[in-house]
TrEMBL record:
EC class name: hydrolase
Keywords attached to this entry: Hydrolase
UniProt keyword Hydrolase, yes or no: yes
EC number: 3.6.-.-
Family annotation (CDD domains): ParAB_family
Keyword Hydrolase on entry: yes
Pfam families: AAA_31
Position of the signal peptide: none
Molecular function as annotated in GO: hydrolase activity
Name recorded for this polypeptide: Sporulation initiation inhibitor protein Soj
Domain (AAA) ranges: 3-177
Length: 256
């Protein structure tokens, strides 16, 4: 049975999509069967996996509205090594349309139930908000992976997200857990980042993943080639860190 994880943080530009596609590719490299679900109308995770969002149909939008099944909408990314349930700007409309539908927070969970046996991991790239789309992700998941930069305001935003996870756990999805905080775009030369990193560990303990993702330009270049950084340049420091993170996730899941 697949383990389902949301990559979430209500801030934009913190590394969610980079984490989703590179963790997916890293897990594929260590032999896991992976489905990556793009829940962001920007479709960056879709494009970054080598699937063209402009011509893609059906997408996760049709899946949420109930007019397509996951196996019909998912595409294999041969280059990246995993399956992609893609998104494009059409998904922005779902936010409004879902409100009218029954079980509006549970649409994704219900759709993914049909493919639970086909994958080891299902990763969901969430939009930068605590919207109905993100709620669908949180209701479908066993856990949340939170990428964050070790900056001054990072901790502040975190409490909103942690509260939302608690609320969803209490009211909508008893399975949901905060799996961990992933330090991304990390630069060891910056003292402030070291300090925030120490604060994180003091406050969240083993909820902070051991793996640290460095700031690495190869990870930022990869999407324009339609590839996860892990595949684009496997020798890059950032790529190696994501494969390491994939291994850490496999071990964590065995203990869950
Ligand atoms: P989000 O999905 O949270 O909005 P992204 O994953 O799109 O964030 O990342 C925001 C920007 O930062 C992108 O341009 C991405 O290429 C870049 N980026 C993300 N992680 C790294 C990293 N470890 N090193 C360098 N650049 C990164
Ligand atoms: Mg994103």
């Amino acid at each position: 049975m697949a383990r389902v994880f949301c990559v979430a943080n209500q801030k934009g530009g913190v590394g969610k999509t980079t984490t989703a596609v590179n963790l997916a590719a890293g897990l594929a490299q260590v032999g896991q069967r992976v489905l990556m679900v793009d829940l962001d109308p920007q479709g960056n995770a879709t494009m970054g996996s080598g699937v063209d969002k402009r011509t893609l149909r059906p997408t996760v939008y049709e899946v949420l509205l109930g007019s397509a099944a996951v196996p019909d909408a998912a595409r294999r990314s041969e280059a990246a090594g995993y399956d992609v349930l893609g998104a494009n700007r059409e998904l922005a409309g779902a936010e409004v349309e879902l409100v009218e539908l029954p079980q509006r927070e549970h649409r994704l969970r219900q759709a993914l139930a049909a493919v639970q046996g086909d994958y080891d991991f299902i990763l969901i790239d969430c939009p930068p908000s605590l919207s109905l789309l993100t709620l669908n992700g949180l209701c479908a998941a066993h856990g949340v992976i939170v990428p964050m930069q070790c900056e001054y305001f990072a901790l502040e935003g975190l409490s909103d997200l942690v509260n939302s996870i608690k609320q969803v756990h209490a009211n909508l999805n008893r399975d949901l857990k905060l799996i961990g905080l992933l330090r991304v775009m990390f630069d060891t030369r910056i003292t402030l980042q070291q300090q925030v990193s120490e604060q994180l560990k003091a406050h969240f303990g083993d909820k902070v993943f051991d793996t640290v993702i460095p700031r690495n330009v190869r990870l930022a270049e990869a999407p324009s080639y339609g590839l996860p950084g892990v595949v684009f340049d496997p020798s890059a420091r950032g790529a190696k860190a994501f494969v390491e993170f994939a291994r850490e996730m496999v071990v964590r899941v065995e203990r869950m």
